[in-house]
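Because showing beats explaining, we let one protein speak, sequence and C-alpha cells together, and leave readers to judge.
___
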Amino acid sequence: MRQLLEPVVTDLGYELLLIELIGSGQRILRLYIDAPGGVNLDDCELVSRNVSAVLDVDDPIAGAYNLEVSSPGIERPLVRDEHFRRHVGERVKVRLMKNISGRKRFTGVLTRVVDGGVVVEVDGETYEFAYDDIESARLAPDFRGPGG
C-alpha cells in the first residue's frame, strides 16, 4: 500500500507518515501526512482527492472502506528511522508485539537511535527496542508542567 500511495503524497509535497486500515465492519483507511510547515484541512482534502483517484483505479482493498487523511497531531506516529531521529529527547509511547519484562507498553524518553532500533528511558530504566519488535510508537507530550 505504501508503494502505491507514497509517490502520490510526496509528489504533492507532503510526507506520508503512516497508513492504517482499521476495523472489520465499516473499515477506515487512514493516512497521516505531514509537511515542514504542518498541514491543514485543505492539505488533507487535496491529498484525499488524489489518493482516492489512485485507489479507484488500482482498487487494492477488497470491500468497502472510508478514506481519511489526517495530520499527525501532537501524538504523531513514529514509523521510520528518520522519524525517531527527529524526536530524540522527547517522550514517546511504544507498544511492542511481544512482552519484554512482562509488559508490551512503555512510555518514556527516547534517548537515542541505534542500529535497527531505539533506546527509551522509562522510570530510570533503559530499554532497547528493535524496530522489528515495535508494533506502534507515538510521541507522548507531557502536559503536567513543572513538578508533575
User: Anything to note?
Assistant: The chain has a mean pLDDT of 91. The chain has three helices and eight strands.
